[in-house]
Specification:
globular, 2 domains, Alpha-Beta Plaits, Aminopeptidase
């Protein structure tokens, strides 16, 4: 399945010259993409705030997806909904002919954590999820960048299509993997993404491949005191598996990661549980490393069931390939980010940030670092992302900006707080500017596109065949229910 573009009317061809000095709205004509992003600052903040309030989980982002689609449709984008058999996934496109430049937009929140936009711990009663990874900012910033590029294309008459992908369920749902598997990126020339962070960087950082599954043990219930001999505890199966997995930790590669959470363990101590479930993640820099460790984990599950007199089955929930970095694009993005500059705080924002930093302890970094651009380098990141699969389908480049107070870890209440604050909104604007400049460069610089494609093809190799780590399963639309 591919997105089929429909004709659109474009104005006459124009030209745009980009300088290397820091860019502001006053320095350029109306076709300047940075000026277009700055003009959308209120929209960025509004959409980010609405997504933050909704805090919808993976594959359940109905209102979040609808909000983003409505904003884009209002700007003249053509919308295709429910792509790759995912109701909340969509593609919005504007333009015709020329290169196809894609911008990715995430929108899902994390379960089990919430926080107000206060700089001190302040949970919101009854709210079971929060944007602890800043995907509300991701969605809003990408939307703003796409709209700014659309306006630039329209005003300059440059041939080309800007395409925003609404990508659900990044957090453990691998939404982009199903979109990649369905061929949604096959006609894309370059894909651009970004992420919330506590610093500004366009470094070429790879990620770990990963796979997850829910292991479900079935036993026999009985009275734990009156008839224990009749029972076969499903929880014993889970605990036996976990014990073996924890011993495996000593004997897996140093760069590998394995972690789990018991999602169901019974309801009453005096009832032998006949059902228990444990949710596992396995990560490694190479997909083959994930699969080797995974085979051992499956053996542990079988052994645990055999030893406890229970039965076990498992469901693969998600799997991501590692990011295939493209240094041609990464260096170009670093130039754009450097031209834009980092995040500067007002006096009120600095006071807020100082209050939050009190909870960070030794992890706190100088607040001034939010305005700095980190040096370019290439490194291994220990997280995982479904952007990895996109990067094996088309040349892909990313950027990170200081949406959080320096020293903040992702998946923390401090990240939730800043993601709902003006500090987060400013970081999203920085990302939107860098992405918009990158897109304009890609539309107008065929040599850059060709160099990026050459590096991409060389890195994949002549015999590359795409294979996902989640097999041929359908999207797990109920994995967060």
């Amino acid at each position: 399945m591919k997105f089929a573009a429909k004709p659109a009317v474009l104005s006459a061809l124009g030209a745009l010259a980009l300088g290397s000095a820091p860019l502001t709205a006053d320095d350029h004509m109306t076709t300047d993409p940075v000026a277009a992003v700055e003009a959308e600052a209120d929209r960025t903040a509004r959409v980010a705030s609405e997504l933050w309030e909704l805090a919808e989980l993976g594959y359940l982002e109905t209102r979040s997806s609808g909000l983003m689609q409505a904003e884009l449709a209002g700007e003249g984008f053509r919308i295709e909904q429910g792509i790759a058999e995912i109701p909340t996934a969509f593609v919005a496109e504007w333009g015709e002919g020329g290169p196809v430049i894609a911008i990715l937009a995430e929108m899902d929140a994390l379960p089990g954590i919430n926080q107000s936009s206060s700089p001190t711990r302040d949970q919101i009663e009854g709210k079971g999820a929060g944007h602890a990874c800043g995907h509300n900012l991701f969605g809003a910033g990408s939307l703003t960048a796409a709209i700014a590029v659309k306006k630039w294309l329209e005003e300059t008459g440059t041939p080309g299509r800007i395409r925003l992908y609404g990508t659900p369920a990044e957090e453990g749902g691998s939404g982009k993997v199903y979109m990649t598997r369905a061929g949604m990126f096959d006609d894309v020339d370059i894909a651009i993404h970004w992420h919330a962070d506590d610093q500004n960087s366009a470094a070429a950082r790879t990620s770990l491949a990963n796979r997850s599954a829910k292991f479900r043990f079935t036993g026999i219930s009985a009275h734990a005191a009156g008839a224990p001999e009749r029972g076969r505890s499903a929880l014993d199966g889970v605990e036996a598996m976990n014990m073996m997995a924890n011993m495996m930790h000593e004997h897996i590669p140093q760069d590998a990661r394995m972690h789990y959470v018991i999602t169901s363990g019974g309801n009453a101590p005096n009832v032998v549980p006949d059902f228990a479930e444990v949710f596992y993640y396995v990560r490694h820099p190479d997909p083959s490393g994930v699969e080797a460790i995974w085979a051992r984990l499956e053996d542990a599950a079988r052994g645990a069931a055999m030893g406890t007199g229970t039965e076990v089955e498992w469901e693969i929930i998600h799997g991501n390939n590692p990011l295939l970095v493209n240094e041609t694009l990464a260096r170009a993005m670093h130039e754009k980010l450097t031209a834009v500059g980092g995040v500067t705080y007002t006096a009120e924002e600095r006071e807020w940030a100082e209050q939050l930093q009190a909870s960070l302890g030794d992890a706190a970094l100088p607040l001034e670092s939010a305005a700095e651009i980190q040096p370019y380098n290439r490194s291994l990141g220990y997280g995982s992302t479904d952007v990895g699969d996109v990067s094996w389908a088309t040349p892909t480049v990313g950027v990170r900006t200081a949406t959080w107070v320096p020293g903040t870890s992702s998946h923390s209440w401090q990240a939730v707080a800043a993601s709902g604050h003006s500090i987060g909104h400013k970081g999203a604007q920085v990302a939107a500017k860098a992405m918009a400049l990158m897109a304009v460069d890609l539309f107008t610089n065929p040599a850059l596109r060709e160099a990026a494609r050459a590096e991409f093809e060389s890195a994949r190799g002549p015999y590359f065949v795409y294979r996902s780590l989640l097999g041929d399963r359908d999207p797990p639309l109920d994995y967060r229910r």
